[in-house]
Amino acid sequence: MTNLMLILLSDNIVYVVLFSRSFAYLTIKDRTPQILTKVIDTLHRHKNEFFEKHGEEGTEAGKKAISLLSKLRNELQTDKPIVPLVEKFVDTDIWNQYLEYQQSLMKESDGKPRWFHSPWLFVECYMYRRIHEALTQSPPIDDFDVFKELKEQNFFESQESIISLCTYLQELMRTIEELDEDQLKNEFFKFLQISLWGNKCDLSLSGGETSSQKNDLISSLEDLKPFILVNDMERLWSLLSKKTREKASVRVDIVLDNSGFELTTDLVLADFLLSSKLATEIHFYGKRIPWFVSDTTIHDFNWLIEQVKHSNHKWVAKCGVDWENCVKMSRWVYHDHIFWTLPHEYCAMSQVAPDLYAELQKADLILFKGDLNYRKLTGDRKWAFTIPFHQALSDFHPAPLCSIRTLKAEIQVGLQPGQGEELAALEPSWLTSGKYGIFQFDGPL
């Protein structure tokens, strides 16, 4: 029996749906209940804090949130119908409209989307949105980030690697003006690879277990190169070096993924882009609500810069001071938008969030970090491995863009003929292990 159930769409492209022993199925069957259990445990452990801050009202709010999340876990594990959101929030109506759309696609299971009979992307996003709803239904603890401790733990456990990165960056700064073009390109490629492999630290993939970076990443880059399956770094260099010759200002947008160590690697890359004059402004995009365990929110972004600034290591602290200045001077600009936590694929952005699409169109280059962004870029469809990336993006072409991800989902496009099959024969888990990475570019040559 196949490990995937497929819903055929009008153009014969297929959505991956949960069935049998696919990675998607195991995510919903095993990892998501594990994450919900950790969230419930976190609320239990903070009950004294809720009481100290809010009195009896805080205690009751904690109990209510736990009850709602326990109900959610039961709905998931028993394959209940997916129910509309009830708490009014800025995106509630959009979510419920999308649920109606999913219902219109159903031809069985009594016409209602269910946890194990629906597209993986939708179901996974829906679970995190329901976690948020459980908190918003439980004031006064409605602003409590149930994933905050895990994200901070990831940062603290990665200290040695962070020290190594910041030291390398600050030592480079002393001679960066003297580098010739080839040397500058070589350093650019290093910081891109650091950002790529930083994407391995994903707490949603590990079920919320520790996923920190304990090894010196810089010294491992050469050994990791064979695991880059699509390498468009040269195209990124050509684009940015050409733009800097033609324009006074060059804008690079980074759509962030995980906080903690990965966010540090992204900020180090952003710092290098400005210092090398490959860019004059960096725009970051994060999540408005806690999402996929470790995804970056504005609180995580500001918290990390503050932690780095107050480090007792001089080069780390220097990075923190520089990064804070970048924010103050608006050379770094942080955006959040509710679209990033909707279930829609990105080809729908121009219709669903035209303001966000228009903002992205201002960029000279957009870097999309991580797996969830890749799934939304490509519609989370079961594409053939050789389908061109441009085709998989459908109508999403706001500006030249590049996916920077380690592979942690059963989807990959733009490979050479036979490349995917060869990898599958050598290593059955190549699509989901996080061992392989890509720099996949789409834009004018």
Task: Describe what you observe in this structure.
- With 445 residues, this protein is α/β, with parallel strands linked by helices.
- The protein is 50% helix and 10% strand.
- The protein has 18 helices and 9 strands.
- It has helices spanning 23-45, 47-54, 56-77, 92-105, 120-136, 148-157, 159-173, 181-198, 217-224, 233-246, 261-275, 298-309, 314-328, 349-352, 354-360, 371-377, 389-392, 419-426, and strands spanning 5-8, 14-17, 228-231, 251-255, 281-286, 332-336, 365-369, 401-406, 437-442.
- The strands form 2 sheets. Strands 3-9-8-7-4-5-6 form a 7-stranded mixed β-sheet, with helices on both faces. A two-stranded antiparallel ribbon has the order 1-2.
- Strand 4, helix 11 and strand 5 form a beta-alpha-beta unit.
- Helix 1 (23-45) packs antiparallel against helix 3 and helix 8 runs antiparallel to helix 11 (261-275).
